[in-house]
Amino acid sequence: MIRGALITHNTFGLPDIFWREARFCLNPATELTYMLDPSGPVTVRLPADLRGAVIKRRSEYLAGRAVAALALREAGLPEQVGRRDRAPLWPKGSTGSISHTDTRVIAVVSRSHAGLGVDCETIMTPSQAAEIHPMVLTPAEAGQHPGILSFSAFLTLVFSAKEALYKAVSARLERIPEFCEATLTSMSADTLHLDFEGAIYVAHYNIDALECLTLVQLRE
Question: What is the pLDDT of residues 3-59, one digit of tens each?
């Protein structure tokens, strides 16, 4: 299910964040044992309510919880990630986030941040972008589209940054916000600035022709 060795370095070079990233493939298994970590194997199992889920959902869950367990291990924390509805429930004294595409999975953990949100996305096709962009971008945000990116790539990037932001602040929220509640205020070569409820948040990003990755960190 997980293919090869994990990426363990923080893509953005940010301090106090433990990072585990891998490529994975679909597998009908109900448990996963990853054997290649230098500190020993890690095993994760599907909860009973997910054993009847489709293979894609089962594979995403197992791959995500495996890399999360290894990030927690490096942080010196219990390796078990609980659940609150569909959201991960992190051990006391930590914050974290998990994201995946169909082939890529990432987990980040911190002992010193108030919140973390990571999100990876496959770049949308032009038809996908045309369908969802009114739900993600206001006209003012769309006007910030830089010519160096296709509109599909720009939309995917802003979508991802808002996903990362909402994950980072989710513990403070009583509901799931709409995408247009956070607004893009500015953009540089490696960060986006988002306004949400009157506060400005920084989303770090990188992007290539196929995928984008974003991270929002909240300090105490």
Answer: 888 999 999 999 999 999 999 999 999 999 999 999 999 999 999 999 999 999 999
How many residues are there in the chain? Answer: 220
Query: Looking at this protein, which amino acid is placed at residue 14?
Result: L
SS3 labels along the chain? CEEEEEECCCCCCCCCCEEEEEEECCCCCCEEEECCCCCCCEEEECCHHHCCCCHHHHHHHHHHHHHHHHHHHHCCCCCCCEEECCEEECCCCCEEEEEECCCEEEEEEECCEEEEEEEEEECCCHHHHHHHHHHHCCHHHHCCCCCCCCHHHHHHHHHHHHHHHHHHHHHHCCCCCCHHHEEEEEECCCEEEEEECCEEEEEEEEECCCEEEEEEEEEC
* Amino acid identity at 198: G
Question: Do the beta carbons of residue 122 and residue 101 sit within 8 Å?
Answer: yes
Task: Enter the pTM of the model.
Answer: 0.96
Q: Name the residue among 12, 5, 20 with its Cα closest to residue 79.
A: 20
Residue 178 and residue 160: Cα distance in Å, rounded? 13
Separation of alpha carbons 65 and 71, rounded Å: 10
Give CA–CA dist 81/75, Å, rounded. Answer: 13
The residue type at 214: T
